[in-house]
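> call design_seq(struct)
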């Protein structure tokens, strides 16, 4: 599960959280982004988004993924992504 907390109250609207394997620039991320299980959602209390992803678990190598957030409206408007590369540690049982 991923939790995103906005530093300031988010504008009213619907947001989508996505991910892609590796580190990417915004221009490349558009074609690689995989939407999470929750899909479009509004920010809870105007500040938080939550998402669940079916990420393959790596048991022997640390890996990099890029998470992205964008707004989507029912009228079809889509904002550009705000992205953040993240290093995921090795899963140990």
């Amino acid at each position: 599960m991923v939790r995103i907390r906005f530093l300031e109250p988010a504008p009213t609207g619907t947001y989508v959280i996505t991910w892609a394997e590796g580190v990417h620039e915004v221009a490349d991320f558009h074609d690689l982004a995989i939407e999470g299980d929750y899909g479009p959602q509004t920010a809870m209390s105007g500040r938080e988004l939550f998402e669940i992803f079916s990420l393959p678990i790596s048991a022997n190598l640390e890996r990099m993924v890029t998470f992205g957030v964008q707004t989507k409206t029912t009228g079809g408007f889509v904002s550009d992504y705000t992205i953040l590369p993240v290093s995921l540690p090795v899963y140990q049982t």
